[in-house]
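Here is the promised in-class demo. Please do not try to memorize the tokens; focus on the logic of going from shape to residues.
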């Protein structure tokens, strides 16, 4: 029996593939949030912003960050899909390091909802922390 396998799951343990799929969902949310930055920069700066080499590097960096985030999500998704059933892991220590309450709930809870970011959140909405 490996450290990941258990005969019985405790309260802080969860199936590893399910945890990985929740991480995939969070990464897709991060990619979506990053992707929303680019049009906002263009709206604020107007068409002249595209004339600046520095701005072009920033926009290319945003695109690369989105691609990398989605690539990591797909990699983890593929790992989760090919993982043997029954592997579990204790989440207590890992979840204690996550500071965002909503992310902690998403990663730790059994409720899995793909892509949780609201598509039409009003400008100016934010969460106090």
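The designed amino acids, position by position:
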């Amino acid at each position: 029996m490996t450290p990941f396998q258990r005969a019985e799951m405790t309260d802080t343990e969860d199936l590893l593939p399910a945890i990985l799929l929740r991480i995939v969902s969070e990464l897709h949310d991060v990619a979506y949030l990053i992707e929303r930055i680019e049009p906002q920069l263009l709206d604020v700066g107007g068409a002249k912003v595209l004339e600046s080499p520095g701005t072009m590097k920033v926009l290319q960096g945003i695109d690369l960050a989105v691609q990398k985030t989605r690539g990591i999500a797909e990699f983890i998704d593929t790992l989760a899909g090919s993982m043997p059933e029954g592997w579990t892991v204790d989440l207590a220590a890992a979840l204690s390091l996550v500071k965002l309450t909503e992310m902690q709930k998403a990663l730790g809870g059994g409720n899995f909802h793909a892509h949780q970011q609201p598509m039409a959140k009003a400008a100016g909405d934010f969460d106090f922390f």
